[in-house]
């Protein structure tokens, strides 16, 4: 761990006299007109925009991304995504609340995030946190608590209360093929779009499709039809998820990076 990160953690965890940078400092210093201009620029740059309103349909969970409803949060998230893609450890830490909750961490707050994910600039390119955050930041989400909290991904933020988070999963694509065996060349038993399905297990069998490697999951459709779906297109609400909270006017910070229950 570099001296700079050590000093950051020390300063965040201690109540010294030296002022610490506010969370989401990058957006809080931007004048409102400039913030709006950045918002428009980022909106134009996004080619994979999810709908801002979620379609409601029985036994389905459609994608939604409400981030655009809050200008400051949208800019904050896009800047955080840019930092993640650039593997910028210090920009990531600047966007994190000092008391962030991190699953699996043995220390509280930022210190736990740093130690659990090995956040050192010397090995920044290979840190496991980058693909986790990039996927979360692109997976939509929804606001709660009167717009003061944003949860990602969308299937965790909008999961139906009546369905068990441990027993069900969401199909995250349109026209996803359900196969008879956990391999690409097996028979297609059904084709579904954004279905809520019963999750049975994640198999040990993985496959490379389109340059990506994922395991196959065994699921059960309505009508008790059982099949296998490629892991890229099935998600569980107990997987990785991030929570962001409004910490002041035009200020946001990541307050949770959790998985499991």
TrEMBL record:
Gene3D superfamilies: SH3 Domains. This is SH3b domain-containing protein. It comes from Phaeodactylibacter xiamenensis.
């Amino acid at each position: 761990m570099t001296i700079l990160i050590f000093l950051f953690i020390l300063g965040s965890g201690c109540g010294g006299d030296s002022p610490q940078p506010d969370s989401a400092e990058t957006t809080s210093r931007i004048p409102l007109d400039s913030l709006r201009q950045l918002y428009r620029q980022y909106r134009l740059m996004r080619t994979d925009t999810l709908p801002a309103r979620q379609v409601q349909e029985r036994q389905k969970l459609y994608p939604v991304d409400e981030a655009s409803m809050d200008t400051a949060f949208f800019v904050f998230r896009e800047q955080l995504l840019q930092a993640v893609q650039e593997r910028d450890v210090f920009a990531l830490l600047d966007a994190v609340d000092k008391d962030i909750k991190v699953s699996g961490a043995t220390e509280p707050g930022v210190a736990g995030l740093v130690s659990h994910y090995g956040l050192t600039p010397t090995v920044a390119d290979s840190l496991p946190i980058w693909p986790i955050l990039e996927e979360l930041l692109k997976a939509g989400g929804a606001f709660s608590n009167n717009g003061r909290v944003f949860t990602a991904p969308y299937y965790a933020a909008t999961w139906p209360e009546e369905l068990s988070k441990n027993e069900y999963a969401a199909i995250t694509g349109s026209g996803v093929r359900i196969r008879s065996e956990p391999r690409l060349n097996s028979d297609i038993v059904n084709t579904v779009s954004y279905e809520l399905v019963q999750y049975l297990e994640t198999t040990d069998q993985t496959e490379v499709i389109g340059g990506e490697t994922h395991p196959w999951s065994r699921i059960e459709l309505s009508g008790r039809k059982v099949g296998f779906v490629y892991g890229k297109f099935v998600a569980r609400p107990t997987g990785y998820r991030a929570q962001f909270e409004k910490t002041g006017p035009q200020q946001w910070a990541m307050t949770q990076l959790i998985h499991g229950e």
